[in-house]
């Protein structure tokens, strides 16, 4: 019988989804011995969780094979589905030094040598073979042999640092499972982990996984939903309006909307959109409205690009920073504090809508039956580094059952009218369609995701592992 579970935490997203929510407590109540195999700097023993620290040291060549595999796979998807959108998921390598040029040449050679489905599989094999020769892989083997877990669950399908631990478990015959952590990840060819079982948000995502990886058997894909939305259904975690207003120095008479920031890659001129929104609110307030903006930046954005806007519009904008912190220089070393999910859901609870550029916050607000407006224009006076039309052509937006699932802001002059429409409660059809979209993307009820994970694990002994 399954009793000891290893939960591999390679980054902050894994912490937020599986260490800070209800997942550990449900497993504990069911009698499981849960060990967090923790690659982050966060000390989980501080919150009473068992952990084994894991210092990830993948080989440099493994990363090169990973890069080549992803690029080759995107080429394969382009050809197989006759769709150029997959080429837009490629990112140029940064840096111009000799070492960078040599690495890029190696990646380019690997891509040229390995095309199509067979080529992608071969690069996956080369990536795994490279990692088996690492000291890191040997250390993972030793831990697994000593601890002898019954199941290894990886909370993210894409980190380079997760390859060796999952590979070591598979080589020892320990059943493995991997969570596809985001709704937009599969078309981007970010799956670098091969596991026995895959956990996905919905039937829609299950069909996507099988479409992109036809070698995965249908019964190996488990629909659980994602724990990230569970917080919105926990009354104990959100601040009531009076306390929320007092905590952040807000005005009790004001109605607040949320401007949710994007990362600098997705929205390189996000500060311009914040300024346009502030000007729109200023215009509405001059006509007798009393509206404020709560600005929540992307947790991975610690830049100063919003500073001038926040200063110039401090009479309208209040920034409430995500409770994340930099534990290192790379993106996966930006980690959440345990307070952040409660802070995020409190912001949603106390705002009447959200404005952003194509964020999954649409589903967070759908959980509260509140509307989302998507920015759908390029900022004026800027040579756009990324045309906004490219973003909304991404595959995950094609899952939208009805374009009216969100309110569209096609130019900055439309912002006041969109806000006014929400305030006058003329958006019931938009909210209804956003809920339909949410139900398509994430199995309902959304608050039962962690229970579904444990239900699968409880039945694991009766399942065959390939």
Automatic annotation (TrEMBL):
<protein>
    <submittedName>
        <fullName>UDP-glycosyltransferase</fullName>
    </submittedName>
</protein>
<keyword id="KW-0175">Coiled coil</keyword>
<feature type="coiled-coil region">
    <location>
        <begin position="113"/>
        <end position="147"/>
    </location>
</feature>
